[in-house]
Design goal:
- The chain is α/β, with parallel strands linked by helices.
- It has 18 helices and 12 strands.
- It has helices at 2-23, 37-50, 65-77, 93-98, 112-116, 121-127, 149-154, 163-177, 194-205, 220-235, 248-256, 269-273, 315-325, 328-338, 351-356, 360-369, 379-395, 400-414, and strands spanning 25-31, 54-60, 85-89, 128-129, 132-133, 136-148, 183-186, 211-212, 215-216, 260-266, 284-287, 301-308.
- The strands form 3 sheets. Strands 1, 2, 3, 6, 7, 10, 11 and 12 form an 8-stranded mixed β-sheet that branches. A two-stranded antiparallel ribbon has the order 4-5.
- Strand 1, helix 2 and strand 2 form a beta-alpha-beta unit.
- The protein is globular and about 65 Å long.
Length: 416
């Protein structure tokens, strides 16, 4: 009698456990290795604790924005149900909305207008496509100038406000250090998404805009001066001869290893530079990017958005996840733990955030004034044109004049 009762209890417990397991949902989230999946995991753990019936699995891939985009294009074109949630570069919401690859969120978030007013304007605008809320802001980003405080102090150099000043200071530091491995400046010129910004920084700094209301506003002279700024950095020895091979992570690793006096890089580099394995810990300063002589400072806005796949079989749970991840609490958590820039203005004033990332106290105006890359459903083509031609110039495979001609002709065909 006792044996039968114990057996019944064990069977009942087993059925209850099986029922609980059957009810649990697992969401698969795609993030890049650059988006600190280790820290995202900690944030997902918080979500799981608040939603016991849902588990989150991370899928990583693609070390650059274009590789991530290519992978997501393949998955979404196949109407694959594998992914539930993904992070989108700020350049992609319009493309994904046009292809109907994301779940419109208008009916899922209440008062859309009131919600989006809480975010930084650039991200609220990027995620609203023809009246549809396509994604929710995850974290902001902007290109910044990192510099070695110790080396500038050693050689009596001030933080440069123009590219010409940076070039002159870099030469002085390189000559003084007598270290053949020390780069004066590291920037991205490989055929990657960051190189679109490389081309546009001096172009914008001259007061020019590449695209206005979806139409090309080309200025050949500004394009030639943009190419000239970067090729002169290489020719003068300030930037390495293999600059055409340098990608975002190359710059980050080189600066972190103490192999560069200056670096143009996104904000995520800060936490890496302060890590225990960094050769430049406590030696790094951050400033706005220099301007061309006689021009104005200009930066390139980045940032990542949380989107829900239109082919997810767990849409309700996925929407709950991205709303959790796109909250002031998680924005603060990502800032403190990974120096990922907040998408809420008030988080920049949080004392814990400022203690962890002091330069956030002065970076908000940079984010609000930074330029967005062309917003168009055909952005993939625009990006390919700009980065491949810029890369060709820095690699010595094309003259600046020929690259400018090719870039204009191809952009006119895309941006009619």
């Amino acid at each position: 009698m006792i044996t039968i009762r114990r057996t019944s209890l064990l069977l009942a417990a087993g059925f209850a456990l099986a029922a609980g397991m059957a009810q649990a949902e697992t969401l698969t989230v795609f993030v890049s290795p650059q988006q600190r999946p280790d820290v995202m995991r900690l944030a997902f753990d918080r979500f799981e604790a608040a939603h016991p019936g849902t588990k989150v699995a991370i899928q990583t891939g693609g070390t650059t924005s274009e590789l991530q985009g290519a992978y997501l294009n393949t998955v979404m074109s196949a109407k694959d149900t594998t992914l539930d949630v993904f992070m989108l570069d700020i350049i992609r919401p319009a493309q994904f909305a046009a292809a109907n690859w994301t779940v419109p969120l208008n009916d899922q978030v209440g008062d859309v207008g009131a919600l989006m007013k809480r975010y930084l304007p650039a991200y609220a605008e990027a995620d609203m496509v023809e009246g549809k809320l396509t994604a929710l802001p995850g974290f902001a980003d902007v290109m910044l100038l990192y510099y070695r405080k110790d080396l500038l102090e050693k050689y009596g150099q001030k933080v440069p406000t123009t590219w010409a000043e940076l070039q002159a200071s870099a030469k002085i530091i390189q000559a003084g250090e007598k270290n053949p491995e020390l780069q004066g400046l590291s920037f991205q010129a490989a055929a990657i998404e960051g190189t679109v910004c490389t081309f546009l920084l001096p172009y914008w700094s001259q007061g020019k805009n590449l695209v206005q209301d979806g139409r090309l506003t080309w200025d050949r002279d500004a394009a030639l001066k943009s190419f000239a700024l970067w090729t002169d950095m290489v020719a003068s020895g300030v930037a390495p001869r293999n600059s055409a091979e340098i990608a975002t992570e190359t710059t980050r690793k080189d600066f972190q290893a103490g192999k560069a006096a200056f670096a143009v890089l996104w904000s995520y580099g800060w936490s890496q530079f302060q890590g225990p394995e960094s050769a430049v810990k406590d030696k790094v300063g951050v400033a706005v990017l220099p301007a061309v002589t006689g021009g104005q400072t200009a930066s390139c806005i980045g940032g990542w958005q949380w989107g829900v796949s239109a082919y997810s079989t767990h849409k309700a749970e996925s929407i709950a996840l991205i709303r959790f991840m796109s909250s002031p609490e998680i924005s603060k958590f990502l800032a403190v733990q990974a120096s990922l820039m907040p998408v809420f203005p008030e988080v920049y004033e949080d004392k814990d955030v400022l203690a962890a990332v002091p330069f956030f106290g002065s970076v908000l105006p940079v984010v609000n004034s930074a330029h967005a890359r062309p917003v168009t459903p055909r952005y993939n083509e625009v990006s390919d044109i700009i980065r491949t031609q810029t890369n060709a110039v820095l690699a010595g495979a094309a003259t600046a004049a020929d690259a400018a001609t090719q870039m204009e002709a191809r952009l006119r065909r895309v941006l009619k």
